[in-house]
Recover the amino acids of this structure.
């Protein structure tokens, strides 16, 4: 096993303390031939899992609601790692009705900001005139992520202009000290060049390496973790590993957080890239298979509920129309249904009542006005 660091240290003064900031080497990492060979089987396993997920996505009648749900689930999990306590139901409720339910409104807004950042980024990549993966794109995502929430005073959309540290109470006792701020622009520029250059490494390994590089550079005062996890999904699309944003590793990283941090540290101190790649590939395979099972379960649930509704005896046209919108709007209110169906209040009320009577919608909470109704079976599977 290599024992040298994957970068070098720069000594500087922060306040009255002398600190050693770590500056990573440029990518790609050097991998011995035997290590590359040892990664072939994990790569095949990850590719097979991604192929199953791609097929599951293609078999779903409408991929839009599937993507919609997965982006929000990832937003919730990625924000949860940073300490938010919002629930999926409350996030969906807030987006569609402006009501946050029982969650702290600030936590919900952080999650919805992540959704805005992700939707913006994928929209740019999908557009012929949009931004490619670049420092500018990440800055735009960061600006949207931090808008009006905790950290809004920490230079949204701008690279940091001061030294930061991770762990500990000050730079002198920190677990890790990222590069000095004045080296961040050049480090990110080199990272961007690597994204758009050719390399013999498999794209999945390149994604894994770039995630580490971004987290090590730690270019922002706040929000680095969420942008770094979003970058994984963007890179998968960039290299056409997975076109639709259906694979997110936040749950895997959250469940294996101590090992995740240990792997990052081992790369920086001992260049243990191969162990990190194995960990990352295992997560890709695991999460892809879980997403495939979720897709199948959601598809089966919706198909079953549709059959039940249609067999229930003369369902109204408005009830059927509302049902078909539920995967994208799994939390609704009467005013929202009125707008969605472009109909009258009595017709919207009847549509909701039919779906409640057939067990599709359930009333949420005890509100007397603008009551909320959730497609609970769908939400339970997703959560």
């Amino acid at each position: 096993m290599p024992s040298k660091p994957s970068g070098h240290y720069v000594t500087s003064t922060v306040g009255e303390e002398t600190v050693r900031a770590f500056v990573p080497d440029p990518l790609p990492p050097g991998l011995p031939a035997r290590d590359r060979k040892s990664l072939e089987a994990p790569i095949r396993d990850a590719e097979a899992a991604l192929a199953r997920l791609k097929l599951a996505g293609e078999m779903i009648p409408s991929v839009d609601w599937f993507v919609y749900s997965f982006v929000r689930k990832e937003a919730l999990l990625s924000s949860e790692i940073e300490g938010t306590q919002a629930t999926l139901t409350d996030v969906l409720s807030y987006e569609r009705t402006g009501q946050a339910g029982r969650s702290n409104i600030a936590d919900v807004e952080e999650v919805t900001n992540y959704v805005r950042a992700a939707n913006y980024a994928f929209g740019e990549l999908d557009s012929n005139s949009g931004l490619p993966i670049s420092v500018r794109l990440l800055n735009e995502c960061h600006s949207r992520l931090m808008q009006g929430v905790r950290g809004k005073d920490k230079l949204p959309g701008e690279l940091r202009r001061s030294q930061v540290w991770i762990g500990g109470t000050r730079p002198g006792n920190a677990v890790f000290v990222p590069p000095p701020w004045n080296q961040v622009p050049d480090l990110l520029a080199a990272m961007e060049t690597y994204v758009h250059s050719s390399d013999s490494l498999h794209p999945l390994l390149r994604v894994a390496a770039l995630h580490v590089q971004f987290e090590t550079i730690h270019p922002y005062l706040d929000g680095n973790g969420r942008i770094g996890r979003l970058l994984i999904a963007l890179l998968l699309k960039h290299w056409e590993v997975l076109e639709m944003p259906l694979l997110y590793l936040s749950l895997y990283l959250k469940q294996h957080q101590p090992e995740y941090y240990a792997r990052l540290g081992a790369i920086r101190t001992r260049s243990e890239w191969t162990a990190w790649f194995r960990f990352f590939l295992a997560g890709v395979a695991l999460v892809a298979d879980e997403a495939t099972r979720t897709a199948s379960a959601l598809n089966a649930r919706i198909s079953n509920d549709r059959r039940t509704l249609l067999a229930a005896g003369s369902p109204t046209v408005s009830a059927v129309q509302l049902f078909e919108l539920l995967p994208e709007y799994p939390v609704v209110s009467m005013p929202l249904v009125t707008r969605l169906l472009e109909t009258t209040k009595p017709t919207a009320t009847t549509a909701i009542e039919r779906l409640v009577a057939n067990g599709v919608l359930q009333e949420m909470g005890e509100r007397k006005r603008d009551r909320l109704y959730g497609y609970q079976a769908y939400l339970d599977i997703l959560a």
Remarks:
- Residues 312-382 form a domain with the Arc Repressor Mutant, subunit A fold (CATH 1.10.10.10).
- Strands lie at 7-14, 17-24, 331-333, 362-364, 372-374.
- Residues 273-310 form the longest helix (38 residues).
- The radius of gyration is 23 Å.
